[in-house]
Structure formats: structure tokens, C-alpha cells
Task: structure prediction
Amino acid sequence: MPSYLLQGGIIATYRNVSNDASTFRADVLVEGSTITRIAEHIDPVPGIETINCEGKWVTPGMVDTHRNVQSALTPEEVRIGQLSGCLEALHSGVTTLLDHFHAATTVGHAEASLAAVIESGARVVWCPARQSGPTQVFPALEYANEEATCKWQLEKLHDWGSRDHGKLTPDGRVTLGLAYDLIGCGPASAHQAVFRYAREIPVQVITTHVVKANHILIMRDANILGPDVVLSHCNCLWDLNDPEDESWAAMRENACAIASTPVDELGMAHGNPVAMKAVQRGVKCGLGADCTSVNGRDNEEIHRKGAAAPQYNKYKCRDVFRLATLGGAEALNMQHLVGTIEVGKKADVVVFDANSANLAGIADPIAGITFHATDADVELVMVNGEIVKRDGKLIKADWGLVARELKQKADEVRERFPKEKLEAMWSEYYETFGPPLL
Result:
């Protein structure tokens, strides 16, 4: 595996042992998949490629703690959607994703998604969802295949996880998680059985949506909360201001994490983002994009909205930068691997062109990245020591070929589901069942 010397850049990072960000000029030596040395000057060595980072900012890769990379279509459409979605994340400097994969409704869908994740080069906690698709929507929702679907999904979960203790690639870049959104359905014993089964495999993370319906106390009483649980959104906690509130206490005492997706939550009327409330209460928290079809795809915009409320004006851009890097790594229990630029960490690194039109006038790299940078300023992206974007262009996959297939499949989807049909279906759903409640 190639090794690299990133020379002359300005490092912007938190450190595991410190709760404050640092910016300093240094060279970074990457050998294989790991950062092995950081020093003011490192002499070039034959056989190691030197990359000139003068006038550039070097940061840890961003960590996205909740993203729905692809939804339920055909397996072929899932594959290209999943691949392009992961590549889009890499393009904007997101190197680690928790993928809440809703569309694992057949073995073919699941395998297509996993193959695309592995091909993309991103670091992914791949979380196939334990749920079946509806066999009927109107006049009442029916899930006639639930029993059979549950059986094969749990069998496949064990098959994927038992190959190498949850590692889905030999280098551990892709790992297995579980998405589980059935807490509001059925007895506690059913949820306990699934969580116990998943943890015995083991999966790295179990993630579930908590939006307007507060399922946290149900999970607490079922004794299934834990440090491997990531709760997405948690907007229902916004109004719970009592320092001794049971829900916040349950999360803190069980070392759970929140995946806050501010742009998506505001755009979809989920409610106010609670990222900074989590920070105040000592609950692990990271940021995420959720559905990039709903919000802007710009990861920096997500960071800007991370503290989007007047009462949080006391917080600084470096607090949001932490949520997007080390905070996200902590939420996924990966802080020993990623989230900072430190010796011994995996080489998940982003290099920003600080001479760009967006950034040339900015003195503080963290302020520049949080408030001004876009994916156009991301010059180089490295995951696990492998360069996946260079000179502003994705190189892990041929984006031209990916884009052509993506356009073709997207046109086929639009032909099957024209706008008028979708709007009619949604109107009927809303009139029949009311607004979705997660």
C-alpha cells in the first residue's frame, strides 16, 4: 500500500486528550493506512510520495452519523444510488458514514447496497434495517411478508457479521450495524430479543429514529439502551429543559449517542435540532446529512446549522467543527480510529485549498471550513490511507460512468413514478393516516 508525506500544510484538529481545537503548521507522514508521524518538518524519503500542502488546510475527515444513502427501488437502482451517494459524501470531505439502509427488503437489495458501499472507498458503518416493506398501503397498511422477512434478515445479519466479527472488509473499513425502527410496535420482549441477537454477532452500532415520538424511556425500561445505540434526530427532546429529565438522563447514563441532522430536521419540520442541548447535557453527539435529496448536499452547510438557534450564540464554530469530526467519531465509538489528526489514527484526511475564491481571505481554518468552505474547496480526500479524491476530482471510481448510469436509472424511476402519481399517493396517505410519526 502506498505511503504519503503531506508537507507544509496547516493542521486543524481536535485531540482525543484535549477538548479544544488546535491549528498548527506540520508535516504528516502516512504509512499504509495509519498516521505514523506528525512534526514541524519531516524530510522526504525515497519510495514515499510527497504531496505539497503549502497554502492548504489539513483536517480529519468528517463523520456523518446518520445518512439514508439510498431508498427502496430495484436492486440495480439501489447499487448505483448507493455508490453515487457514497462518492458524493467523499467529494465533500465526509470520510465516515453511518448508513441507515432502509431498503434491505430482499437479499438482492441488501447485497447490492453492501457491494456498492465496499466499492466506493468510504468508511461506512452499514446498518441494514430490520423491517419489511408493506404489501398493501390502502385502505390499511399490511405487512404480509413480515415473518419471512424477519427470518431471512436476521439470518443474513448473522452471516455478514460472523465472517470476521462484524468486519465487512478485511481492513475493517466497512463494518456491520443494525437499523431498527420497530420500538413502537409489539412487546418489549421482541425488541430485547433482536438487540441481544445483534449484540452477540456483534454489530458495531444499533441505530433507531427518535423524532416526534419519544421511545427513549421504552428502550430504557426494556434495558436495551447502551453505548452502541445511536438515536437519530431526537427533536422530541427540545422542550425537555429540566436538568434531571428522565430521557436525557437515560441517554447519558447508558452512554448513548444522538445523530443530529439540523438542515434535514428543519427542512422536513421534524422540530428544532438538539445537538447543542446534547453537548450541554454530556450526551455524545455527532452531525449527519440524513437525506441529501431533501436538504443541500453541502456538508459544510450542515455544520453551519449545527448550532442554528439564538440561545446557542455562546458557542463557537470550533464547537460545531468538533461535532462534525471527533464528536461524530465518539458517537460511533470510533474515536480511537478516526475524528482527529493524531499519530496512530487511521489516515482519514481531508485537504482544503485555502487559496480558493471561498477561502483565500480567511485566517482561521476552522472558521473557514465551518462557515465558508464548499465541496469545491476539497482538494484531496484520503480514507484508510488511500487517496479517493485528488486535485478536486474523485479517482476511486470513474465518475463519468457512474453519472451516466445514475442518470439512466433516475430517468427510469421518474418514468415509473411521475410527479403527479407521487403527489396523489402522498395526499391519499396523509388523508388516511395523518403525518408520519417516528
